[in-house]
Amino acid sequence: MFEKALKGNNYYWMWLAFLGFFIAVAVVAYLRQYFVGLTITGMSRDVSWGLYISQFTFLVGVAAGGVMLVLPYYIHNFKAFGRITILGEFLAISALIMCLMFIMADLGQPLRGLNVVLFPSPGSMLFWDMIVLWGYLILNILCGWVVLTSERNQIAPPKWIYFFIYLSIPFAFSIHTVTAMLYCGLPGRHFWLTAITVPRFLASAFAAGPALIVIMALILKRVANFDAGKEAIDKIVTIIIYAAIANVFFLAMEFFVGFYSNIPGHMHTIEYLFFGLEHHGNVYNNLVPFMWAFIALFFVGLALLSNPGTRRGNDLWLGLGCASIFTAFWLDKGLGFVLGGFVPSPLEEITEYYPTLNEIFITIGIWATGFFILTILYKIAIGVEHEVEA
Amino acid sequence: MDIKRRNFLKVAGITTLAGLGGTAVVGRLVASSGLAQAAGGQGAAQAGQANLNGNQTNPGVKRYGMIINLKSFRDDPTLGEKIVEACHSYNNVPDVPNPKDEIKWIWMTRYENAFHENYHLYRDEATEKQELPVLCNHCDKPPCVRVCPTKATFRNRDGVVVMDYHRCIGCRFCMAACPYGMRSFNYIEPAPYISNLNQNKPRRMRGVVEKCNFCVGRIEVGQLPACVEACGESKALVFGDLNDPDSEIRKLLRENHTILRNPSLGTLPSVFYIV
Ligand code: SF4
Ligand code: SF4
Ligand code: SF4
Description:
The complex is a heterodimer.
Chain A: H1 10-36, H2 51-65, H3 67-74, H4 85-106, H5 115-118, H6 125-152, H7 160-184, H8 197-223, H9 230-261, H10 264-274, E1 277-279, E2 282-284, H11 288-306, H12 308-313, H13 315-340, H14 357-389
Antiparallel strand pairs in A: 1-2
Helix pairs in contact in A: 1-14, 2-4, 2-7, 2-8, 2-13, 3-7, 4-6, 4-14, 6-7, 6-14, 7-8, 8-9, 8-13, 9-10, 9-11, 11-13
Chain B: H1 3-18, H2 22-38, H3 44-51, E1 64-69, H4 70-75, H5 79-90, E2 106-110, H6 111-114, H7 125-129, E3 131-135, H8 143-147, E4 153-155, E5 161-163, H9 173-177, E6 184-185, E7 209-210, H10 216-220, H11 226-230, E8 237-241, H12 248-255, E9 258-259, E10 271-274
Parallel strand pairs in B: 1-10
Antiparallel strand pairs in B: 1-8, 2-3, 4-5, 6-7, 9-10
Bound molecules: iron/sulfur cluster (3 copies).
C-alpha cells in the first residue's frame, strides 16, 4: 500500500519538503547536542527536564486521544465514526513515534537506551511507561494496517483483529495513566503529587487529541476530498467540549485546595505559573503569559465550539475553535505542568528555564517528523478510501 | 491515636499475616520501633515506617549514617569550605563554573534552604546566619532508587545509595524524584573542570547523574569518608553504623536532639543534624 504515498500533487510534495527542511535542521541540531552534550539546552540542575519531556508528556495525551473514536465505534457500534477512526489510529502512531524521539533526545546517554530493557526495573514507572507506549504503538500499527487492508480488499476485517482492537482501548488509557504516574508519585514535588494528575491528564488528552483529529479532518476535506461526515465531527466536538471542561474544572480544584488550605507547598507552583512567585525580592514569572494564554484560549475555544453558529455553520470557525483548545492544552500540559513542577527547587531556590535555540530546533524537528509520518499515513488511508469508492 | 497504639495495631496486623512466625516478627518490630525513636526523636509517622524495616535490627547488616553538628560549623566558619574541598578533590567532582551545569556532592547552604519546613519568622540570629552542609541523605527508602529505570542507582546492603555510572542512561528521573535536590547531572564533559585528578578514583562521563556515595571505596577498606576526615578532631561530622547500638554515632544520637531534613516524606534519611 505504500505506493499510494509516492503519488501526489504538487502541494503534497511541497508540504513534505517544508517538513523535511525542519527535519534537516533538527538533525544538525541534534548532532550538535550529541557531540557537545545537554549543556547546550536550557535545562539545569534545578529544572532537569525541559521542552523534550514536556512535549513527550503532551504527545502521549494526543496519542491516547484517538481512543475517543475507537471506543464509541467498536464498543458502542457508533457507525458515524467508521470513516474517521483510522485517522485516530494513525494519529496515535505518529504521536507515539514523536514521544519516543523526544525521550531519546532527552537522554544523556542515548546509546544506552536499551538498558531499560536489559535491566528491567518494575519499580520504575518509566519502565512501565516504555512497555505501554511500545504496546500501544504496535497495537495501533497492527489494527490500523489490518483494518485498512481489509477495506481495500472490500472484505470484513478478520475476527482475530477485534481482540487487538479491544485490547488497544485499555492500553490507550494506560499510556496516559502511567505517564501521569511518572509525576504524581514523586515525594516532595507538591504540584505533581496529587491523585488528580491522572484524571486531569486523561481529560486534557481526550480534548486535545480529538481536537487535532477534527482539524485534520477539516484539512483533508479541502485538500484530499475526504469527508468524515457531519455527524461524526459533531459528536467529536461534543466529546472535546466535555473533556476540556473537565480538565479546567480539575485545575480549578487544584486552585481551591492550594489556596484554601493555605499550605505553601501547594500554592507555590500555582503562584509561579499564574501570578509569578516572589523570592528574596525577585519576582519569577516567565510562564505567566503562557498560562493566561491557556485560560484565554480555552474560553475562546469553548465559545467557538459551543455556539451552534460557529460550530456547525462554518468550517473555519470550527477549525479555529479546535485549534484554540489544542493550543490551550499544549500550553497547559506541554509547558506549564512539567516546567512549573520544578519551581521551587527542593532547596527552596528558584531557577527559571529558558530553552535554547538548539533545543527549540530539535523540538520543532521532532514535531515535523511526526507530521511527516502522519501525512504519509493519511495519504495511504485516503488513497485506499478513494480506491474503494471508485 | 497515640504512637504506642498505632504500633501495637501494626504489630498485631502483621503478626496475624505472619502466622506461625509471628512471635519472632513481634520481637523484631518492637525492638526496631524503639530503636527508630531513640535514633532521632522522629515523628510518629517515621517511627511507624521504621517498624516495617527489617534491616534496622538485623545485627549482621550495617546501615551507615552521619551526624552533622551545626555548632562546630558556627565555631569554625572555615570548616565548610574544607569539607567541600576534601570531598570534591578526593572524588574528582568537577568545578563547573556555569551554575546551570554545576556538579556538587556536598555544599554549604542556609538553614532556611535545608530546613525550609522548620523555618519561621521569629528565628534566632544563629539560625538566621547558620551555614550548614547538605549531602545525599542515603535514605533508607530512597525515591531515587525506586524510580531509576535501569537500576543504575541502588541501595547497597550497608545502606549506602550508590550509582553505576556505566549503566545510567541519563534520563534524570532520579533528579526529579530526590526530594532533597542532592543529585547533579553531567550536562557538560567534566574532564576539563577537574583541576587535580585523583588517579585512584574514577571520574564520570558526560550524560550521567552523580552524587555523594559516602566515599564507598574508603569505607569498604575501613577508612572514614573524606569529608569526615577533613574535620579532624572537631567531630563536626561523625560517621558510623546506625545498626550498631555501641557505635559512636548511636551514642551521639542517644545523647542529643537531632533533626532530619523533611522527615514527613518517609524517606528515612541517614544523615542527622544536631542544631
Ligand atoms: S537524598 Fe536524594 S539522592 Fe540521596 S538517597 Fe535520598 S533520594 Fe536518593
Ligand atoms: S539518570 Fe541514571 S541513575 Fe538517574 S534514574 Fe536515569 S538511569 Fe537511573
Ligand atoms: S561522604 Fe564522601 S562523597 Fe559524601 S560528601 Fe563526604 S566526602 Fe563527599
